[in-house]
Amino acid sequence: MPDPLAAIDRFPRVRLGHTPTPLDPAPRLGAALGIELWIKRDDCTGLAFGGNKVRQLEFYLGEARARGADTLVTSGAVQSNFVRVAAAASRQLGMDVHVQLEDRVEGGDDLYRSSGNVLLDRLLGATLHPFPAEGDEAAADAALDRLAESLSGAGRKPYVVHNGIDRPPLGALGYVVAASEVLEQARARGFGFDAVVCASGGALTHAGLLVGMRALGEPMPVHGICVRRDARQQRVRVAQRATELAALIGLPQAFSADDVHASDEVHPPGYGLLNAAIGEAISMAARLEALLLDPVYTGKAMAGLVALVRAGRIAAGSRVLFVHTGGLPAIFSYANRLDPWLAKAPHVNP
After folding, report:
1. What is the C-alpha to C-alpha distance for residues 79 and 145, in angstroms, rounded to an integer?
2. Residues near 240 by Cβ (< 8 Å), separated by ≥ 6?
3. pLDDT tens across 6-28, in order?
4. Which of 33, 239, 250, 251 has the fewest C-beta atoms under 10 angstroms from its C-beta?
5. How far apart are CA 73 and CA 119, in angstroms?
6. How far apart are alpha carbons 117 and 76 in whole angstroms?
7. Burial letters for 249-278: b for 16+ Cβ neighbours within 10 Å, e otherwise?
8. Are the C-beta atoms of 312 and 95 separated by less than 8 Å?
9. Residues 232, 218 contacting (CB under 8 angstroms)
10. pLDDT tens for each residue of 263-293
11. Is the pLDDT of residue 256 over 90?
């Protein structure tokens, strides 16, 4: 089988992140769940509070520089981690940045719209463009293209990172690299993993890990916890992104449809909205491991991991990898929503 990392070397890339990121044990949280738990600390990728988007943007901005772009144009939710890291990466490379903030979350208050990632976007000098549509990627991408056309007319050379799934999944290449990194770290410790758990939204992290693991001969399931769509829709999205990614690196048979796992038990009431399972997971991680999780992605992903263990879909005693994809600035924008739950959260004894 061809080396997937050798294939990735053909793609333009700029180095933005502090990698390899740590692989840390979480013994107290693992013991509470009845598993051996390890955390891949991609919250420690370094750039502007880090997160998984740093790995993805290394390839988008590599292509942008190869094309001679001077302005990055992209879109995301109001508290988008991708937007924040895109703004930071653009500034680090001397590029201008225009970002579209989509109003996806119901009931967002003034704190949600001004703190967390939004504050960092402004600090980084990104030009912010509001976008009212919820859940319509095609409309958001069309608006990005109109913005890019306007910038071109003003003499700029924009590079657009779209949200939709009708363009090559370049960002997922970063998580093929991450899969190799995880396996090297595990081998250095003399073990392997029984399962991997990550948040699954745009699906590039999920698809990249899946294709990377299979391309490197590792059979463990990669469980994606749905953060924006139900499991049926997300499985279709992950399968499409993974198929496209495998073709990009010349491994069209790298995975099968049975390899695509998506769980939506903790997804309701929807994207960016809290529930008791998310509150419990955030509290447990913080009070047992001092591990900070955000309400939108990692808190929901940890709640999904807990649900998989309690339902027996991840067996007791399994060695499980949880991919911490970052997103920590969003915690501050959710203070008003977290306070009522934390006030009644059960105390966790040392």
Report:
1. 22
2. 165
3. 899 999 999 999 999 999 999 99
4. 250
5. 18
6. 11
7. bebeebbeeebbbbbbbbbeeebbbbbebb
8. no
9. no
10. 999 999 999 999 999 999 999 999 999 999 9
11. no
| Most distant pair of Cα atoms in the chain: their distance | 61
pLDDT at 115: 96
Q: In what order do the strands lie in the sheet with 319-324?
A: 23-25, 36-41, 319-324, 195-200, 222-226, 260-263
Closest listed residue to residue 195, CA positions, set 32, 309, 100 = 309
- Amino acid identity of residue 188, one-letter, is A
With beta carbons less than 8 A apart as the criterion, state whether 245 and 177 touch. Answer: no
Catalytic site positions: 80
Backbone angles phi, psi at 98, to 5 degrees: -120, 130
Cis (ω within 30 of 0) for the bond into 269?
Answer: yes
Calpha distance 226→208 (Å, rounded): 16
Q: Prior bond to 22 cis, omega within 30?
A: no
Helix H, strand E, coil C: the string for the chain is CCCHHHHHCCCCCCCCCCCCCCEEECHHHHHHHCCEEEEEEHHHCCHHHCCCHHHHHHHHHHHHHHCCCCEEEEEEECCCHHHHHHHHHHHHCCCEEEEEEECCCCCCCHHHHHCHHHHHHHHCCCEEEEECCCCCHHHHHHHHHHHHHHHHHCCCCEEEECCCCCCCCHHHHHHHHHHHHHHHHHHHHCCCCCEEEEEECCCHHHHHHHHHHHHCCCCCCEEEEECCCCHHHHHHHHHHHHHHHHHHCCCCCCCCHHHEEEECCCCCCCCCCCCHHHHHHHHHHHHHHCCCCCCCCHHHHHHHHHHHHHCCCCCCCCEEEEEECCCCCHHHHCHHHHHHHHHHCCCCCC
CA 173 to each of CA 21, 34, 264: distance values in angstroms, whole numbers, following the listed order? 16, 33, 25
Per residue in 323-334, pLDDT tens?
Answer: 999 999 999 999
Buried b (16+ CB within 10 A) or exposed e, 202-225: bbbbbbbbbbbbbbbebebbbbbb
